[in-house]
Amino acid sequence: MRTQADMAWMIERRPSMANTASDGFQALVLRARKAMPDWLRRGLRIARNSFVAGAASPALPEELVANCRLCASRAQLVRALPHGGRVAEIGTDTGAFAQLILATAAPSRLDIVDLDFSRFPAALRADPRVVVHQGRSADILEGFEPASFDWIYIDADHAYASVRRDAAAAASKVKPGGYLVFNDFAHVDPYFGTYGVHRAATEFALDHGWPLAWLAYEPSALYDVALRKPDEAA
Asked: What is the Cα–Cα distance from 94 to 204, expressed in whole angstroms?
């Protein structure tokens, strides 16, 4: 028979228990999607997005784009971003981009956040610079200490609401003068998947006054964009 103390503990724990169950379900869905053949994933995207229209992004004022530079690829973007500091990658899948960050930017610490690490290499997990965090990206970002990252790379769920949550949670964790980088800065991909990244990143730049510092070219038009946190920002 449960005591009043037991019941109080369960009530207190219920939100976190529900979050854990939700994380587990989302991880299962993500793993199932990863296991699908490419043709099936693309077909499901087209079917789903035939009924979904992405909202337009707002215009940007000249002062937020005046000093934005173009580079040839996201690999070149990593070369241009700060080296040797602390970096976070939000969403990693196979860890391929994490390996590029480690090899190119040589961070002293790379925090990697994802719901599912089933395809993440054991050798990469064993790298002493790598710290793995499994769970919902916005929740984990909230737990990091303020102004602790030289740059944060957001590449998790590309839905508008998800990108907004991740950006809002990451903003205070970036050092003044540091960068918030958005992968797939676009409305749609070449296989007709609707993204919310373009709108969410543009709104973030407007709301917070972070100028666009870098745009990384990508042949499929799934660009990366790096926003620079103002030096005087808290």
From this structure: 28
